[in-house]
C-alpha cells in the first residue's frame, strides 16, 4: 500500500505529455500549499517522488512508523525541482542534498528528525491522530489561521508560486532530456540505466 508513488513512468515516457503533466503537478502543489485551509497529510506505506512532494506541500504530516519517503528522480534522469520548493523550507540544505542526490528512501523517524514529518504513529492510530490534529487546529479562528499561513508564505524571500514556476522550468528540461528517456525506459524495462557521460 502507498500514500502516493508519484509520476506514472510508463506515461512519462510519452514526451508529448511532459508539459501537461508537469504543469498539473505544479498546480496541485501550489493549490495545496496556498489554500487558506489547513492541510494534513496522513501518510502510510510509501510517499515517493511526486507523492513525497504532495506530502511536503501540506501544512502538517502524520506518518505511520514504517512509511518510506524518498526522491529517486535523479536515478530516472529527472530533477525533483517541484518538490525542492518545499524541501528547502522544511529540511535545510544539507538534508535536502542528502534526500535528492542520494535518492535513498528514508523512514518516518528520520523524516521527523529532519523536519519533513510532524508526528510518527502506529498504523492503527494514523487517522485518529490526524483527526486530533485537525480538532486542535480548528480551535483557532479561521481568518487568523489563514492570515498566519499567508504571513509564513510572505516571510520567504520568494513565494511558493515563484519557486514552483522556476522549478517547473528545470522539471520540464529534465523530462525532455535524453537522460530522462533512458532512465524511464530502464525503469520500465526493469534494468539499470546506461548513462552517457
What can you tell me about this protein's structure?
- There is one protein chain.
- The protein has one domain: 2-enoyl-CoA Hydratase, Chain A, domain 1 (Alpha-Beta Complex).
- Helix 2 (18-34) packs antiparallel against helix 9 (160-175) and helix 3 (50-57) packs across helix 4.
- It has 197 residues and is mostly helical.
- A 3-stranded parallel beta sheet has the order 1-3-6, sandwiched between helices. Strands 2-4-5 form a 3-stranded mixed beta sheet.
- The protein has 10 helices and 6 strands.
- The mean pLDDT is 87.
Structure summarized in a few sentences:
The chain is mainly alpha-helical and 197 residues long.
* Euclidean distance between termini CA atoms: 37 Å
Radius of gyration: 17 Å
Helix content: 40-55%
Q: Spatial order of the strands in the main sheet?
A: 1-3-6
Biggest sheet features? 3 strands, parallel
In round numbers, the mean pLDDT is: 87
What portion of residues belong to β-strands? 5-15%
Name given to the CATH architecture: Alpha-Beta Complex
CATH superfamily: 2-enoyl-CoA Hydratase, Chain A, domain 1
Amino acid at each position: 500500500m502507498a500514500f502516493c508513488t508519484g509520476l506514472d513512468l510508463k506515461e512519462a515516457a510519452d514526451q508529448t505529455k511532459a508539459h501537461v503533466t508537469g504543469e498539473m503537478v505544479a498546480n496541485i502543489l501550489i493549490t495545496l500549499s496556498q489554500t487558506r485551509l489547513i492541510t494534513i497529510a496522513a501518510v502510510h506505506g510509501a510517499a515517493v517522488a511526486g507523492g513525497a512532494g504532495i506530502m511536503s506541500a501540506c501544512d502538517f504530516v502524520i506518518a505511520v512508523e514504517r512509511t518510506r519517503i524518498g526522491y529517486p528522480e535523479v536515478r530516472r534522469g529527472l530533477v525533483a525541482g517541484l518538490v525542492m520548493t518545499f524541501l528547502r523550507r522544511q529540511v535545510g540544505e544539507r538534508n535536502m542534498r542528502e534526500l535528492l542526490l542520494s535518492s535513498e528512501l528514508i523512514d518516518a523517524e528520520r523524516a521527523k528528525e529532519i523536519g519533513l514529518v510532524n508526528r510518527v504513529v502506529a498504523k492503527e492510530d494514523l487517522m485518529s491522530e490526524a483527526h486530533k490534529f485537525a480538532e486542535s487546529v480548528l480551535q483557532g479562528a479561521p481568518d487568523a489561521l489563514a492570515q498566519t499561513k499567508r504571513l509564513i508564505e510572505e516571510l520567504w524571500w520568494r513565494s511558493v508560486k515563484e519557486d514552483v514556476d522556476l522549478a517547473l522550468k528545470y522539471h520540464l528540461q529534465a523530462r525532455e532530456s535524453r537522460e530522462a528517456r533512458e532512465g524511464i525506459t530502464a525503469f520500465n524495462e526493469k534494468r539499470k540505466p546506461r548513462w552517457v557521460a
